[in-house]
Specification:
Layout (H helix, E strand, L loop, with lengths): L10 H4 L18 H13 L7 H8 L4 H8 L5
Protoporphyrin IX containing FE binds next to helix 1, helix 2 and helix 3.
Length: 77
């Protein structure tokens, strides 16, 4: 059973508008849907990320690639 991504788990770090950059991350609100999907799946498989990627691995590893793709379509450009 896939659980929909809970955006409330993200807003503390990324902001409700996805524009917060205080942890050294990109402004997610300015990213394309495709780039967000690639980033989220990349954190899960280890192919994407910077010095703080460990924070994101824990956020995305519980979701399927399909769920991350679907959620990415709801945010970004
Ligand atoms: C990076 C989404 C939860 C902290 C990113 C990026 C995306 C994203 C798309 C790529 C932007 C980039 O390359 O800088 C999400 C989603 C979340 C979530 C959808 C919830 C499911 C969190 C939480 C934290 C966090 C809870 C803080 C504990 C960060 C940091 C980066 C990042 C520090 C940059 C990591 C690196 O590559 O060095 N996030 N995020 N995120 N996120 Fe999240």
């Amino acid at each position: 059973l896939m659980a929909a991504v809970n955006a409330q788990a993200c807003t503390g770090c990324h902001g409700a508008d996805w524009a917060k950059t205080s942890m050294g991350n990109k402004n997610v609100a300015e990213m394309s849907k495709a780039d967000i999907a690639a980033a989220l799946k990349g954190y899960k498989d280890g192919s994407y990320g910077g010095a703080k990627k460990g924070l994101m691995v824990g956020q995305v590893s519980k979701y399927s690639d399909e769920e991350l793709d679907a959620f990415s379509q709801t945010i970004g450009k």
